[in-house]
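Exercise 4. Each item below gives a protein and its sequence. For each, produce the structure-token representation.

Item: RNA-binding protein (Rhodothermus marinus).
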Amino acid sequence: MGNSRSIAINLIVKLSSFLLILWGCRQGRPSQFVLRDPKETGLTFQNTIHEDARHNLMTFFYLYNGGGVAVGDINNDGLPDLYVTGNMISGRLYLNRGNLRFEDITERSGIVVTGWATGATFVDINEDGWLDLYICRSGMYPPEERANLLFINNGDLTFSEQASRYGIADTSYSTQAVFFDYDRDGYLDMYLLNHSMLDLQPNRIRPIDSTGYGIGNDRLYHNEGNGTFRDVTLAAGIRYPGMGLGVVVGDVNRDGWDDIYVANDFMASDYLYLNQGNGTFKEVGRQVFKHFSYSAMGVDLADINNDGWLDLVVVEMLPPDHDQRQRMAFPLTSFGYYQAMLQEGYHYQYWRNTLQLNYGLNAQGKLTFSEVGQLAGIDATDWSWAPLLADFDHDGYRDLWITNGYRRAVIDMDFIKDRMIPVLQQERRLGTDSVQRRLITMVRELYDLARPDAVFRNRGDGTFALVSKAWGITDPSFSNGAAYADLDRDGDLDVIVNRIDQPIALYENRGGQGHYVQLDLRGHPPNTRALGAWVEVYCDSLHWVQQHYVVRGYQSSVDYVMHLGLGSCAQIDSLKVRWPNGQQTKWIRLPVDTLLVLHQPEGPGAFVKPPDIPQGLLVERTDRLPPYRHIEDLYSDFIRQPLLPRTFSQLGPGLAVGDVNGDGREDFYVGGTYAQAGWLFLQQPEGFFKAGPIDPTAMLEDQGALFFDADGDGDLDLLVASGSGEFPEGSDYLRDRLYRNDGQGQLIWDPLALPEARTSSSVVRAADFDQDGDLDLFIGGRMRPLRYPLPGRSYLLRNEGGRFVEVTNDIAPGLGEAGMVNDALWSDYNNDGWPDLIVVGEFMPVRVWQNQEGRFREVTAALGLAHTHGWWNSITGGDFDQDGDIDYVAGNTGLNSRFRASRQEPIRVYAADFDGNGLIDPIMTFYLQGREVLVPRMDELFMQVLLPRALQVSSYATYARSHLRDLVYETQLKGAYVAVAYQLASSYLENQGDRFEVRPLPLAAQVAPIFGLLAEDVDGDGSLDLLAVGNDYATDVLTGRYDAFIGLWLRGDGKGNLHPVSHRESGFFVDGDAKALVRLQVKNEPAYLVAQNQGPLHLLGYRSAPPVSCWPWPSEAVYAQLHLPTGRVERRERYWGSGYLSQSSATLCVSKKVQQVTFHAAQGKTVQQWVP
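Answer:
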């Protein structure tokens, strides 16, 4: 096949759909924006595209990528003027005549452009105080017709083209140029963003070219200071090719040297070039970001949460509605193909917009971002182009404007499968030219994807509300480049959008409710507009930062007048400017709602001090551990079961803490895998650890582990549960094991100690549930291999002289089939002296079995927990409100997910043998836009399951509208096992005596799944806090890895409220696929240990003297009462295991403010008192 097939394959990677109108509207108020009539404004240009033999999607796959917008005051009259680029026609230059009226001066200005223009940027390149114009070109043209253009402003509304004279008539396929002083020599250099029309298969997996000569390599030009530029691409380290569609420059790590972010289309990963301060850059994208958008387009960089660090938004092409998602062609949905991409060195990339929150530097000086676009609600805006972050309503937070739309729905799967592929298959018979003509005709007949721009209001809490309709943005269009500026100088930002086959859209802003300030920065030559200046504004407790750059979004540049919304701030307390040369100027008590002209002072440049490395309460102590990294074998459940939502072979490792050898020092065990035996770490006198496998032959899939005295001989034995989706039920690899301690610290497997189960287990917990003086067990069943989502088998085991007997059905009806259990906790929730059992898991409610003197009754519904079904991972307990009973925190999947769930709109899995082949077929659904929809894509589902009514589905469009009941018989659906989830938020469960109130944890705890949980008074202030770790890398390709969590300390206030503490203050930083979290004593001081799947251990201790005192739990004690200076009494329980696959120290740590601690046995008997 010829080039037609190659290009057609590329078309299968683009997305599309119709924009969903969400809540967030301001009822009863005029629209924020009004679309002005082009006849009134004079902005009549439209970027018209004519498809012909030379210009069509078969020969030029960027045919409908559109043009850009550049804003700048070309005649220095104080009004911003406009230039818009055209693809097949010349762009136009518009002079702002005031009152939103513009005059087309293109011909008389001399800026008449031929060829295919893309991005445009106004810049004072020759330091004369007049803005010049640089225009990029691309297209299927010879080099001389796509050379970029530089129009020098003559100061009289005319321009002279001089790109060759300056040395920047680059003939690459260019998208946009950004000017910045990367080496701080005072002169503006140029980064040129490129793509390529020569690579006909940009989605083909190939070795990454790092030579700097790859197709589509960007270019960096150094300003020599003599009116010329020199190509320094290779010397500066710009060595990676891509399909660049977006670029921004800014100081992301705040070291005073500006960095570059490049958004690449197709398979090429995005790049972050960190400025090294010596004229070179280092590409660190894969080290700094956990994942990127796949077909990345436009990009913007600004502080969205007012924490002083620049955040990043990149747009892609995911439709918000289900029908369009199911009809569109997704690239790389195959698990195997995706893994091949990763193995070749490409980074994780997903098919959605991404919002990267900048957390700044951690204690090791590492720059850290977390991607939270789904949590923020901005992830799906269809075929998107330009994201612009600006405060359009003046509430003090930057909103988000996204242009979108596409002229032809070329990635419609019905079109590709039923029309395009049959024609391509005739190429040998009909010839390439004939096939191309047919394809061109067919594409012309396709429906379009005209959409209103997606505009989001920043709520100020980390989430955004879609307000397009409420703000008056309702005109469907094919929008591409866009820019903002206060065009009428009335104090708010208007928006200009370049559209295909439609006139320019000018959205007039009718004003917000809050205050603002505009800044016109005047720098010294050669950087007369002070590009790169860093501005900070302070008002009361509020703080805003903005860096002065104009290239933003897509192929566009905004006005040089900076604009900050200030909310309720009526006077600026102080304003600081760090000028491009490092000088700093401060103004105090400045007015608001005005334009301030700020001049750079005379004087030499200054050193910019990088931000201090955080000195948090906790500090990394991992150097006390020998080298260790958790290893999984190369296995994926998706190979055998493509319909699973996650793999069940990446669940560990667990951690258990105990003094194994009786030397008074706490040791710990790390669970093993089929590829790695479990390791025992023995603490040495100096606080370091020695380690090795306890049984080198035991290469099993360990889950929960527990140190406890199983046989009453005074030493700690070890119970290890086995579980995985890798092995069938009954396999030896699923055998739980009890290792008996020989009294010398040697652990010896006793194969007769436990009943023969050989099911996939998860958690193991101990308590004396019958109060006969020894510890009994609960072992949770995780799942049934190859029969997801059927519940695993759970067990209650009574200790009878060191042997364990299964008594589940006899004393705890229903517990054996509790669900797909992830965690459990023995806790006396009702303070009656008997340990109750709380069990959580996937598609389970928080289930409670009340202990009624050694027998159990489920009381879940009576406690108000009947409809708490979630994807629960973990649970721990603590008296967070200091009222004398135990409250609970449960870790869930969180809200940074493509899924949403509620009581009215749950997630479901329908499970049955729908095709009669003897295997369980799990088919997941969830609600989108009020309708229950199928999660699997049509090909994915039909290749896996021969559904009885599948033949009635004749197209992808039909499938998109189908419910599962349309694909199977009604009797099959009625007989199916149905798993449901109503909530995904990690939650706090307040104990109110006879019931629980469930409320979500703060948003900072919802960015990813929470696994490890630990309730401790971390800072010793007398109130119980919460430490949490998480993430989940075991997901399917379309869902993508949950990877935004970096560890979290939630500070308690003693009233049941938990407040996030920044990692810079806490020092608690764990950003891998974290699972177990425990506290242990290291050299008699508390430390925190975290285990990560396929990652290293992390040990964190206190930077200085711990603010808490610790004491061993007396052997008889099961709870303690802490008498506080406030007169309140806090209850603490002793847990033999708490939090995901975790068992912590057998010591109690309390604030040094605590006046007395009283330890109690089960029925309240005081066994010891302690004064910290």
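Check: The two ends are 80 Å apart (CA to CA).
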